[in-house]
Amino acid sequence: MKRKLRVELLLTFLGLGSALLMFSLAGTSPAGAQAPDGLSNPLFLPVIMGGQSAPSSQSSYVVIGWNDLGMHCYDRDYSTLTVLPPYNNLFSQVIKRGDPPQVITTGVKVAYSFPDNTYSAGKTNFWDYASKIFGANLSLNIGLTGKGLAGDMDSATNHFVAEGVPVTEFSDSAPTTPDYFQMARIVAKDLSGKVLAQTDVVAPVSSEMRCDVCHDEPSPTNFRMNILQKHDEEESTHLAAQANAGNPVLCAGCHADPALGMTGNPNLPSLSAAMHGKHAGETNDCYACHPGPNTQCLRDVMSTELGMTCTDCHVGGMLMLSDENRTPWVDEPRCADCHDAKHAENPGKLFKQSTGHGGLYCEACHNSTHAILTSREAKDNLQSIALQGYAGTISKCTVCHLTTPSSGGPHK
Asked: φ, ψ for residue 406 (rounded to 5)?
């Protein structure tokens, strides 16, 4: 048997939807793990099911999960300079199948976990600096909102959410190899603890913000300090001295960042405007900063089948994003910019906030921005394959309905 083996099989089982079976002989063994058959490295067989059984007359409930963004970025090293903390968001809706089906939030609870990503401390040094940067005294593996790598999702008006999950791109079974599309398991239970339905969804995450490609001087090994020194030189600040004194710099402390809910200094441009404006003359390659040449977070059907790129939606590119009158994370591209009113967002809402057919979120059926189904990444497609038997937008009526309706439907 070869020493290094990694096989990923997408299997479809009769009545069991799909599964992603992964096994590896490479990587570090957990403490106390025993190697089978005398091997020095144990054989791990984490089986990630692609969701609940395909809906049938015996399936009374369906849970659909998604992530709000196509990629969540964070800094792996927080000792000097910080842009974003580890902060991922999971959403889900539970549907009681019927004619008509119902989205429910009462009489049910929903939990999340990462079967192959149960800890983050040590994969990033965030917890060594969280108190100084964010004023938060956190236990290891607990994020800024109090969420860990497993726990209960919070019930909202028409969905469940776990906000601020501090997951990294490093799986337990391969803690030094980035996997930017981590798998989260979402399980819906009744109040007695009986499992009603479950699904597996991607939690996209990357620390691949490649500042080091350009900011490699004067220190080839500390691009973060190089950035602070350059900022001091051009803006007459004293950020390098602050970091050298043991107080890491948080960009959003001065430059407003709605992603963190931080208002910054009103006399300065937002972080988005400052970053895009400063680098507009340096590059037009979005992947130079937004993760990244390896991550390549744009993976949706519009990019794979229509050849669309970032600026097909983010029209105007760097200069548009540097407009100080723009509110980052609010003034975003809209489906209605290209599609008709039947396929548009709710008034005053972004795509990720909009709901449609039967009260389902648009992202529940279409998946998140930058990962609209069918995705380039096989993991993104697992949930739809499990629910309806094929990849793509969840469009099969009997996923939620007991029988196919004779009329109506999404976008009608």
From this structure: -85, -15
Torsion sign, CA atoms 49, 55, 59, 61: positive
- Do 202 and 220 belong to one domain? no
Q: What is the pTM of this model?
A: 0.86
Residue 316 resides in a domain? yes
- Residue 335, pLDDT > 80, answer yes
Give the residue numbers spanning the domain of 306.
211-321
Which residues are 23's β-sheet partners?
7
pLDDT digits (tens, 9 = 90+) for 42-61: 333 333 333 344 444 458 99
Contact 224, 248 (CB under 8 A): no
Quote the pLDDT of residue 32.
34
Same-domain status, 312 and 191: no
Residue 243 has φ and ψ, to the nearest 5°, of -65, -40
d(CA 254, CA 67): 29
- Tell me the pLDDT of the chain averaged across its residues: 87
pLDDT at residue 58, rounded to an integer: 54
* CA–CA distance, 128 with 135 (Å, rounded to integer): 12
The answer to whether the CB of 18 falls within 8 A of the CB of 10 is yes
Cα separation, 270 vs 293, whole angstroms: 25
Alpha helices in 43-164 (DSSP H): 126-134
Phi then psi dihedrals of residue 153, to 5 deg: -85, 145
Using CB atoms within 10 Å of the CB of residue 342, give its burial: 0 to 12 exposed, 13 to 18 middle, 19+ buried.
exposed
Average pLDDT on 131-158 reads 98
Amino acid (1-letter code) at residue 278: K
> What is the per-residue pLDDT for 101?
97
| pLDDT the model gives residue 262 | 96
